[in-house]
Amino acid sequence: MSWSKKQLSTLITVSITSFMGTFLISSINIALPAIEKSFALNAVSLSWIITGFLVATGMFLLPVGKLGDISGNVRLFKLGLIVFTLASMLCAISPSGIWLIAARFVQGVGSAFTSTTGQAILVANFPARNRGQVIGISVASVYTGLATGPFIGGFLTQVLGWHSLFYVAAVLGILSTAIAFSFLEKDVAVHGGEKKIDLRGTFVFMPGLIALVYGSSHIPSSSGWALMAFGIILLALFWIIESRVVYPMFETRLFTHNKLFGFSNLAALINYTATSAIVFFLSLYLQKIQGLSPRDAGAVIIAQPVMMALFSPVVGRLS
């Protein structure tokens, strides 16, 4: 294995960004009771510290992916690192719950930029014979963040407070940004030909996703049901637009013409929905009801992501 300094630096910075996102998600779940004490948040507001990040990431994944195909991925990757790092600093100094939720939303936007473009940058900078290996390393970083987040997050929260999690993210962001600006010099366009972005679909998809998620968090109130219904209508309209537009950012044919792909994504949706909900409530239950410390609660919750990290490669080979 002989990689240039640029290739190695590219792999390191993409792997760090892959690690940061899942580490924050899993570690902040452990810190939620401590954050609740700091800002006196209710359960719905507390959940938006996690949900806001994920919604922002989901909103921007498709537009950023399409924009990367058009204009190149490196500049978007660097922009995402800057946004993520600044947002992490804002999270660390949050004076209120609303500030923290807003900063987490911005952090999710930065994560969308880096996660969407990172894999494409790896593909563009490594020959075909090495791509499987480097993508595997990047994916391993995702699982490492998921597996280590509960215990490390619990330890840091107990010893230094929940703010320390965001300071760690800011430091890693600064490191990644420095590497990216030092070695990722040329912008890389992975695909050519389609030079238009579907603005109509973008402006239907984004509010549709927000309305659906925000509305579902306020059920059973009438406004919650109304927002949820409005979100479903907008997302259905988005599907219709993408199935007819010349330059779609979401290929509906992948789902209509490939049942295996569609059901695989449905299974993943159900799986991640269930596991995310369990971790959120289990963190609160272990610390608020059972009286465990953040470190001990993290030690309990770490079992699930560790099992996922251990058995995912095995199941992948069997499939």
Low-confidence stretches: none
Q: CATH class of the largest domain, please?
A: Mainly Alpha
Tell me the number of helical segments per DSSP (H or I, 4 or more residues long): 12
Q: Using the alpha-carbon principal axes, give the shape.
A: globular
Q: Tell me the β content.
A: under 5%
| Radius of gyration, whole Å | 20 Å
CATH topology of the largest domain: Growth Hormone, Chain: A
Tell me the total number of β-strands.
0
Largest sheet: none
Overall tally of domains: 2
Please explain how this structure is put together:
The protein is mainly α and about 325 residues long. The protein folds into 2 domains: about 5-195 and about 255-319, MFS general substrate transporter like domains (Growth Hormone, Chain: A, Up-down Bundle), CATH 1.20.1250.20; about 200-245. About 85% of the residues lie in helices and about 0% in strands. It is built from 12 helices and no strands. It has helices at about 5-40, 45-70, 75-90, 95-125, 130-160, 165-185, 200-215, 220-245, 255, 260-290, 295-300, 305-319. α2 (about 45-70) packs parallel to α4 (about 95-125). The longest helix has about 35 residues, at about 5-40. The two termini are about 30 Å apart. The mean pLDDT is about 85.
List keywords for this structure.
319 residues; mainly alpha; globular; Growth Hormone, Chain: A
What's the helix and strand layout?
Elements: H1 5-39, H2 43-71, H3 74-92, H4 97-125, H5 128-160, H6 163-183, H7 199-216, H8 222-244, H9 253-256, H10 259-289, H11 294-301, H12 303-318
Helix pairs in contact: 1-4, 1-5, 1-6, 1-10, 2-4, 2-7, 3-4, 3-6, 5-11, 5-12, 7-8, 10-11
